Amino acid sequence: MEESLNNTCHIVTDTSSGQNKKSEYSKKYNRTFNPNEQGRSEDFSEDSFNKGEICLVCDLFGNTGLASRVSFSDAILTSDPNSYVVSEKIGNEDFETKKKGGEYELVKKGAVFEGFIVIRGNGIDKGAVYYGMGIRCKNDEEEYRDILLGRFKYRNQNFGRVRFKIKNNSDVCKNIKDFVSKYKPKI
């Protein structure tokens, strides 16, 4: 989601080395949080950052030292139990799992899961989460798009395509419309 919104503060370079430096963060992130050169957690106490400067993504989903306001339950498989497969191989490729003794937990296309989301926020916050889940509205009707999720989403087009649907919320399109109106996402 952060890449579809202007003025988010996502990290712009690889910090896998464990040595976070200010240059590895976006300008907005540096201006807002003034990260510590030693890579310690940022200070989110009220007087330590620029009020009103926390980007929507960090504000909703959290950041180092900042709790998420969105909670996802475990999703439970509700369709055919045979949709769930444990395998050492994916198609003709084993991706080195045999060497490492690993297995993959896979579900077949069309498998259905159910879970719930708790969003502590207003309608715009809900709209942001729905939008990030690939939900759009056309003529006040919900449209559900596939989004990419999981490890093999870029390696194999048979993997990582999911579609979320919202039950029990009559304000989905209003929430999405309010979010899009305020933040004007690019995609």
Give a summary of the structure in a few sentences:
It comes from Metallosphaera cuprina (strain Ar-4). Keywords: Antiviral defense. With 187 residues, the protein is α+β, with helices and mostly antiparallel strands.
Strand order of the largest sheet: 1-6
Strand share of the residues? 15-25%
Q: What's the Cα radius of gyration?
A: 19 Å
Structural class: alpha+beta
Oligomeric state of the chains?
A: single chain
How many beta strands in the DSSP annotation?
10
The count of domains is 2
Cα separation of the termini:
9 Å
**Low-pLDDT runs:** 11-15
Order of helices and strands: HHEEEHEEEHEEEEH
**Count of helical stretches:** 5
Q: What is the 3D form?
A: globular
What is the average per-residue confidence, as pLDDT, rounded to a whole number? 78
Main sheet makeup: 2 strands, antiparallel
- Please estimate the helix content: 10-25%
Textual characterization of the structure:
By secondary structure, the protein is of the alpha+beta class. It has helices at residues 27-33, 56-61, 97-100, 123-132, 172-183; strands spanning 70-72, 76-77, 84-87, 104-107, 113-114, 117-119, 135-138, 141-144, 147-148, 161-162. The strands form five sheets. A two-stranded antiparallel sheet has the order 1-6. A two-stranded antiparallel sheet has the order 2-5. The chain has a two-stranded antiparallel ribbon with strand order 3-4. A hairpin with a 2-residue loop joins strand 7 and strand 8. Helix 4 (123-132) crosses helix 5 (172-183). The radius of gyration is 19 Å and the shape is globular. The N and C termini lie close together (9 Å).
